[in-house]
Amino acid sequence: MKAVGLAWYSLYTRTWLGYLFYRQQLRRARNRYPKGHSRTQARLFNGVKVLPIPVLSDNYSYLIIDTQARLAVAVDPSDPQAVQASIEKEGVNLVAILCTHKHWDHSGGNRDLSRRHQDCRVYGSPQDGIPYLTHPLCHQDVVSVGRLQIRALATPGHTQGHLVYLLDGEPYKGPSCLFSGDLLFLSGCGRTFEGTAETMLSSLDTVLGLEDDTLLWPGHEYAEENLGFAGVVEPENLARERKMQWVQRQRMERKSTCPSTLGEERSYNPFLRTHCLVLQEALGPGPGPTGDDGYSRAQLLEKLRQLKDLHKSK
User: Which controlled-vocabulary keywords does the entry list (predicted)?
Assistant: First the structure.
């Protein structure tokens, strides 16, 4: 969800105006992007398939498929029509929906899909008001579907009950996959709507503890804009420059930039680099009365987020 004022955010999340706005977004995106905003490519492992589905103007939903059992899990199915088309094309049975958070651009398809697939369970945080939630999850709970083992990790900040989902790579002898919703994007992070900088930092540190080869599947296609901002605060970062060149080639052909890896993100994502001295220096004097105190990691994260909200991609 693009940057919004706090008053509009309250309307979006707490009244039917938010749902009506989502329906308008859905109609416009279907007309503008009849085949989706980006060209995506599935990743096939040993009996497991991850299929990104471009929805709305820049969101991603996902199908996680046990290819042997023909069972599927949908992550953040905001456009039920697009997700259903992928289910039918893959010839699979939808048995679970994993919702990262309540915002309509992530949860808007829960009703239609759960009604269409009567055995489908809807998972998410009970703190977040997930539409049509049937199976509440807590931190470290595991959802099992066929050979799929998916762990929920509590990552509050963007919303109070935001969850990310980690597909364990061990059963299929491949990399784990992180479905990060609006916590973490390629070279970016979500806005802190319902928490503090300390809360968001703790949530980002949760994913920093995962393995470098973990594949990052974010909730939005924000890569080019995010990398542009990263270049403002850390212009000498060669890893960022290389990634930007690749992303620009991808986007010229409307190709998706998903996934990256957490190892890559550590090298250029400023919101995961609040421990780095170069960022402290780039942001100038600290917030103390003399400017000599420096930033705490939470203060640095808050400053970065403020600057990102003001940033206009060139």
Answer: Hydrolase, Metal-binding, Zinc
141 has catalytic annotation: no
Q: Is 275 a catalytic residue?
A: no
pTM above 0.85, yes or no: yes
Q: Which two tokens stand for residue 190?
A: 């979500």
3-state secondary structure of 80: helix
Phi-psi region of 164 (alpha: psi -120 to 50; beta: other; left: phi over 0): beta
Task: Check if 119 is active-site.
Answer: no
Q: Which two tokens stand for residue 297?
A: 């990691």
Annotated catalytic residue: which of 66, 105, 117, 162?
Answer: 105
The catalytically annotated residue of 66, 79, 101, 128 is 101
Per-residue pLDDT of the chain (314 residues; tens, 9 = 90+): 554 566 778 778 877 888 999 999 999 999 999 999 999 999 999 999 999 999 999 999 999 999 999 999 999 999 999 999 999 999 999 999 999 999 999 999 999 999 999 999 999 999 999 999 999 999 999 999 999 999 999 999 999 999 999 999 999 999 999 999 999 999 999 999 999 999 999 999 999 999 999 999 999 999 999 999 999 999 999 999 999 999 999 999 999 999 999 999 999 999 999 999 889 888 877 776 545 567 899 999 999 999 999 986 44
105 carries an active-site annotation: yes
Is the bond preceding residue 259 a cis peptide, omega within 30 degrees?
yes
Catalytic residue among 37, 103, 117, 162: 103
| Catalytic member of 106, 117, 128, 162 | 106
Q: Among the options 37, 117, 158, 162, which is catalytic?
A: 158
CA distance 183 to 27: 26
Q: Are 227 and 242 in contact (CB under 8 A)?
A: no
Identify the CA nearest to 48 among candidates 152, 150, 149, 148. Answer: 148
